[in-house]
Amino acid sequence: MMLFTVVDVVARSFFNRPVEGVYDLVELSLACTIFLALPAVFLRDEHVVVDLADHMVPRAVRWLRVVAGLATTALLAVMGWQMIQPAQDTLAFGDVTADLALPRIWYWVPVLAGVGLSLAAALAMLVRELRR
Description:
single chain, mainly alpha
């Protein structure tokens, strides 16, 4: 993504010729990067954590993790469910990007896959936490 942007800025500045489609490629790369990395974050338990309660009530930390796992699982399930209809609409209408005319469904594929895999990873982490 950074290389696309740098090349576009250099081409625009020095040659007055921007690279066509950079916006589309960066947007697609960003969707892939973010959503396909989420399951790994869940499985490695590498979320950003604020541990204010850990020191005040250390015995409740396990249950807070269980509640957080339940909330995360529910949120990811709702997100996935709510994303299906817009993805189907994109496919039905044949939406394409403005610059490269890429089918917009390719933006939905990594998003839906990432949310689905994140849901599976969150469930696995919740089960692991319940077994402790």
